[in-house]
User: Fold Purine nucleoside phosphorylase from Vibrio aerogenes CECT 7868.
Amino acid sequence: MILPEWNAPARVRALSSVREGGVSTGCYESLNLGMHVGDSPEDVLFNRQIIRTKASMPGEPLWLNQTHSNRVVHVDRHPGAIIDADGVFTETPGVVCAVMTADCLPVLMTNAVGNQVAAVHAGWRGLADGILENSCRFFSGEIIAWMGPAIGKDAFEVGEDVVEAFTSFDGEAIKAFKPHTHHQGKWLADLALLATQRFNRQGVTAVFHSNQCTFSHSGRYFSYRRDGVTGRQASFIWFI
Assistant:
């Protein structure tokens, strides 16, 4: 697992899983945490227990049904059911916020006091539609953010529609795109920079990066763009 290198308060716990260390087989090998991708449910549940135990989590993570929306939910306890959302915020100690990814950008957030945390699934649609801005509205005081493993700027090929979705909102977003040298009309997008720009517009400057590309490291990360049918890693945050 990966522990963020950031200046979060000591009471905050955060991590991202990698694909090694689980029991899943085939295209889901091995620590697949996604129940929705076609893997054996028994294997996924075993994998989830592995990461929960390894990370000494205080309870079962709050798993979301992620739909590439901009919806962020505020929870004060584990709801006991799966919620349709792409971000989860809590002010309750011991509630483990979680998001699953396989190229999209996982974003973990805390305030400077460490009594508010959130986990956000930020694909390009969610970013363009304001999921980070929606997340920031829940927080009081300074926000500290960390971006986990995601598809890198040299691998994320997009079309003109994606460029337009961001540049129509903020002209500075063009700095996060470069024309593809081999595919006319295609661009390479820097998800982490796009997210950083959105944070900066909200006054959030304490933004940290894992600098890990899921697409480029097949042995370490699941990547939907690379493999199609594949598993999911996850990013978690809670406070004690």
About this structure: The chain has one domain: 12-239. The chain is about 20% helix and 25% strand. The longest helix spans residues 41-54. The chain has a mean pLDDT of 97.
